[in-house]
Amino acid sequence: MTTFDINQYRITEEPFYQAQVNEVALYEAAYAARLPVMLKGPTGCGKSRFVEHMAWKLGKPLITVACNEDMTASDLVGRYLLDANGTRWIDGPLTLAARYGAICYLDEVVEARQDTTVVIHPLTDHRRNLPLDKKGELVTAHPDFQLVISYNPGYQSLMKDLKQSTKQRFAAMEFDYASADVEAGIVEKETGVDAGLAAQLVRIAVTARNLKGHGLDEGISTRLLVYAATLIKQGIPAADACRMALVRPITDDADIRDTLDHAIDAIF
Ligand code: ADP
Question: Among 35, 63, 67, 238, which is most exposed with the fewest C-beta within 10 angstroms?
Fold first, then answer.
């Protein structure tokens, strides 16, 4: 039997995270009480980076699962596999985190079907355990285990949502794009572009975010600003980099595309 090494999930170098308000203190308090935490906010605004930073700061391993609609409870919990030596049980990421004391981060949990999501319930209340029905084992969560989920309330809410019985197991923290000067600082720090260029990129994002609900489902994320700055660092002219990284990914609508392209031309 191969032994599992949880240390591979430890984050050894500090992930840069620019705090916006008191989120570090709030999270530390929630972790100290092992409360499950929900991070809400638009895509690419820093939720995953925040969890990585906090796992590093608390010195805990972090197991991240990108959720999708085809995911089953077995993908989280584990399954029997057949190999040359017969069948053997393989723990899923949620079970590993519970058994060995990691922070388990279920990214975009709303993508998973509700019958998948309910497997987290016994881990998120006073029981803090995980029944492995197929294996006939009840895993008691390690004292360091904590469950964190991310959730983008914007675009899914019409089609998909979390059950109230799931939502009400979490303390929730709201994230959003940083204010313009803080966001420019993030782009500068992440990519090494100068402050002036970072501020120009943020101005384009602000224009696009004002179009949200008027033809755009989501604004330009901090992640895309980092991409644009990275392309510029590679030697791509700023306007081309912005079209490629900031506009083309977020819209297929010709009018919106032209509006944003003009905003770029006005800035560069
Ligand atoms: P989310 O999980 O909200 O979709 P991420 O955490 O992956 O978004 O953030 C996307 C990128 O944006 C990160 O890789 C990082 O470059 C940058 N970023 C956003 N917010 C911050 C922040 N507060 N501090 C540092 N980097 C940030």
Answer: 35
